[in-house]
Amino acid sequence: MPPIGLLQWPSLTRERLGRLERQFLPLLITVLVPIMLLPQTATGHRSGNALLAGLISALIVQSIRTVGLAGAKVGLVWRRRVYSWFGWLVLASLWIPVLRGSWQQPAIKAAVMSGLSLFFLFTSVGLIRILARVPRVNAQVMAGAAAGYLLLGFTGGVLATATEVYKPGSFLMGHLVHQQLLLDRLTYYSFVTIAGLGYGDVVPGNAIGERFAILLSVSSTLYVALLVGLLLGRFIASQEVLILEEDNILKGVNLASSGDGDDQTPTPQ
Asked: Domain map of the chain by residue range?
């Protein structure tokens, strides 16, 4: 008989759970590497654009692999297909500056950044739904939770970049920043905002930027609160399952011992 935790989620079988947990660490790596290498992509040359497109493409592919493993309900198949198709469309659009040398029009860059942020937003929501269904907490699940938090910060940077391209002056970065550095600087601003640090070197420049900062701060707070609640609840539930299983084992041993004692009772002469 499978553990009680798995019985609570019949669509998440032991095999599917194992495959899903193995995707969390690669997701964490693929979201961490672009964040660390963003300054190296802001060269303005085709090589920098190719590096950025390659890193984000790997993140999109890993996101599709991770979120696509969740659930087995027939009614949700179309949602996963739409999510996957949208991800592949965004992935293809990332290679526009590589093939054409640069972003020909700011509107195209803003549209691609908006689509990318929307895809990552769907990924973050899907990751929360996955973590809510995982019946146990281990190192792999913690890696998935960390990947979700980093993905939220990166999504904020991408969305802020699209906002700045649509409406220049939404963010004041203290000095003249080249267009190639927007994603790097605004990703930094996003993580500073969700961490509540507020260094002041990058600040909102108008009402749009201020509202963006509000929404990003609220979203990060809600994400952390939901994440802590889900993981803590799963950890407590898994400990309760272990206690119940140990009690059942002890009861079985006691019953077996009492049964052996009854068999060894001598019959009266």
From this structure: 12-72+84-248
Q: Averaged over 181-192, what is the pLDDT?
A: 91
DSSP string, 29-96: HHHHHHHHHHHHHTTSSHHHHHHHHHHHHHHHHHHHHHHTTS---GGGHHHHHHHHHHHHHHHHHTTH
Distance CA 259, CA 264 (A): 9
Q: Which residue has the higher pLDDT, 193 or 265?
A: 193
**Structure confidence at residue 128 (pLDDT):** 84
Which distant-in-sequence residues (6+ apart) come within 8 Å of 83 by Cβ?
A: 64, 67, 68, 119, 122, 126
Q: What is the pTM of this model?
A: 0.80
Query: What integer is the mean pLDDT of 246-252?
Result: 66
Task: Work out the burial of residue 175: count CB atoms within 10 Å of its CB; fewer than 13 is exposed, 13-18 middle, 19 or more buried.
Answer: exposed
